[in-house]
Amino acid sequence: MTQTDIRKAILSSLKEEQTPKTRIVFRGLFWGSILSLALILCLRSMSRDVFATNDLALCISIWTTMAVGLTLVFWPQPRIQPRGYWGALAYGRLLVGMVIVTILQLIVCPEFASMAFHSSGPFSFVGQLTHFYMSFGGMKGCMFLCGLTFTGLGAFMIFRILDRAFLQTPAKKLPGILGLSLLGQSPVIVLQALDPQGRMTFVYWIAGSLLALIIIALMMRGKNILDPSKPTTLP
Amino acid sequence: MSRYTTGSAESFEQLYERYEFRLMGFFGRRLSAPSRSMATDLFQITWLKVHQARDRFDPAQKFSSWIFTIALNVLRDYGRELSSTLKTTSLNDREMEAPTPTLSALTAQELKDLEHEIQNLPIEWREVLLLSDWEGFASQEVAAMKGLSEANVRQILSRARKTIKASTYDPN
Known about the structure:
Strand content of chain A: under 5%
Order of helices and strands of chain B: HHHHHHHHH
Helix content of chain B: 55-70%
Strand content of chain B: under 5%
Number of domains of chain A: 1
Helix content of chain A: 55-70%
Oligomer: heterodimer
Structural class of chain A: mainly alpha
Number of strands of chain A: 0
Shape of chain A: globular
Low-confidence stretches of chain B: 94-99
Structural class of chain B: mainly alpha
Largest sheet of chain B: none
Radius of gyration of chain B: 17 Å
Largest interface: A-B, 29 and 27 residues
Distance between the termini of chain A: 18 Å
């Protein structure tokens, strides 16, 4: 839970610090494993491919990113989010959020990570979108626009949750935040890098993703700091 | 501070009570009224940085200088994003801090004039003047906080005070 009083937040943090660090890491690994398992099972239940090396790499990348993200969230720290501040809590939430959004991207459009599902289910419109995107320079154009669209939508959702952290973020912090957001998409990057066909075009997907992340981050950062819907409690 | 470093909640509360209003006043004076709510965020960020860096605190150093150096760095980092709001210096902020006896003696108009004069000083001069005359730091401490030599701080202070005095009595 995030607090608004820095004094209470620091006092709670001092209490949290009494918990052994190994227990916190274990908690991160445990919940990271549970969440990763849920996401992997969700993907596997839809996939019609047999389990291969690619899938193992996918599992490892999801689990690693999730475990690191959750350990950062659980790490003893004042649980408060001033505008523009990036601490372990914000970084952890960003990482976890981006992994979840990445898996959602795969569920919506498995093609861009060369995955094959039994059926496209409620997302059959994505096929039409893919055809439309293919008209802009074939596979390269499609990958770029897919990165731009899906990462843009996903990042908007997550950055919106973290909007207090994004507001007035110092410019020097942005490269790190964008890098971490991209790292949160490691499951897709790993799948594309392992696929011979994907390897030739995934740079375009990364370029599209990065562009979307930059646009959304700048949008969120530049929001009016006097927004009355974002009250700040005086200490 | 050493007890706070080892995790004492009481020591933290003592430090917090001692610096709460002083630090809020520090940020309040540097932000114009419309963006004053950001002062609370900068205040919180400063305490978060103090909390994170408490293991690195040098006991030979004064805690007040250390926390205000952190506050200055926070203001420098986040101030760039708020550059337009940092243009006004407010000395008469009763919400942030009780005015000093010197300030209480001034009328509202005199205080406004003084704010205006300070506002017209170069940024470096203004910062040194505020740290010295409003926050009450010695030249040696201001020098350490700003990364300047003590002689340089004294020179800036002298020039800033002369400039204010000269312009206050300017009939134009």
